[in-house]
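Human: We require from you a standard protein entry with sequence in single-letter code and fold as tokens, and nothing else.

Assistant:
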Amino acid sequence: MIEQANPVDTAAQMPAVDLWADDVLDRRSDADFLESFLIGRAEERRQRGLPRSYVLNIDAAWGHGKSFFLERFATQLRAHGHIVAEVNAWRDDHADDPLLAVMAEIDDAVSPHLGVSEEAKEKWRSILRTSTAIALAAGKGAAKYWVKKIIGDGFELAQAQIESTEKEREDAAETSAEAIDGILDKKLEALLESFKKDKATIEEFKAKLGEFLAISEQGEAQKTIFVLVDEIDRCRPSFAISLLERVKHLFEINNVIFIFATNTSQLRHAICAVYGSGFDSDRYLNRFFDRSYVFEEPPISRFVEYLYAKFEIAQDSLSLPPNTDLTSFTAECFRYYGIGLRDAGQCIDMLRSCITVWKSKVKLEAAVLLPFIVASHAERLRVDYTNVLASLRNIRESHGSPDVKWNVVFPDYIDGMYKGGKSVPAEKVFEDLIGAMLKPIYDLVSNERSTEHARWINYRFSEELAILHNNSFRRGQPLYSIMRDYPALVRSAGRLTP
């Protein structure tokens, strides 16, 4: 029934090398494996006399690139000739029934492949009308937007149920508002009950969709519809459960493959919020997913690069020691203190919040801010200048590895001649900055420094004095660095939670 024409989406025709060019987490290998696995496993099911269908759960924590993966995977599948529907469950959870949201996206995906055959178009409209009838039966007045979107000109057929109710309202003009609502409730309850009893409606939907997707009479290769569902773990718990139920009971038919991307631990919490804390959510989820695929944790350097790109945190957003790369500096900081990916993601989110609210003309100094963020996040204490060094030592001893180094390379000059770079532990640079910030700025800028990293520290405070105070100060009125505001800034950023 589906025309075997080339996909009309121009993005789908992008070469794979371009499609995955910014794939810093190496998700392309996951995509290649899963495409082969899903098609092969669906075919194995067919050979065993089972529906050629599959439901896969991709389980990955926050920040591990689920949405990026689904977006690129969808384009790759289209480029390989498959039909792909993309469902953002969180965006669509205002719908009365998730079936409408799913069918709306499937309709968008299928419609370009219907060709000019009026017979194919009418059969597809029949499928949409049946799905709408199921959704209408499941709740009071499914949202008109969704109904109109998926059945187009056939909207009036489904609208008949609503119009008859309106007629009853007009006839009952003398009746109280409460009585009218009672009439409406009874009518809809009766409609729901009739659909529950009449399983033929659901079977009709499955049969029609299965027939529609079957191999054509000309023997051309059959099309597979991939339905990619994102953000289900952010939905209302009742909507998430209903969506899983709909997929389980309506789409176990030939040539339909569902892929959910979830933070499964969060989805478990959502299920328990509905059924109770003692509910076996793992067993419940196993009813819906044929398999779960867990993304491999990426190297922390790639993870940091991915998050900086995602949040558009550029190198020039912060001040850094000379010849220092922001991504490498951050990743080495996290490795040095034994910070895992989840905590690293939260630390970068805190960094992002600090950048958002910082209004000074003097840039935030990463060599000071990052250690403060690590200490504040890991220790959950009121970290300030008096305890930050002790906190960092405790984190290092508890979580860090003695084999991991975190250094800054400062250029070394003798008599004006460059003699290469000198490696200084970043923790030492931070400690010296903390010590310097306890003194008035004019004491810092007037003293000669013997080492390159000390001269750089002197330069940082000289720069601040020039930008904020026009190089003027009074010795009788101590003037301290704006970096003293960092602890309070970090504490406030840490109080923001996802």
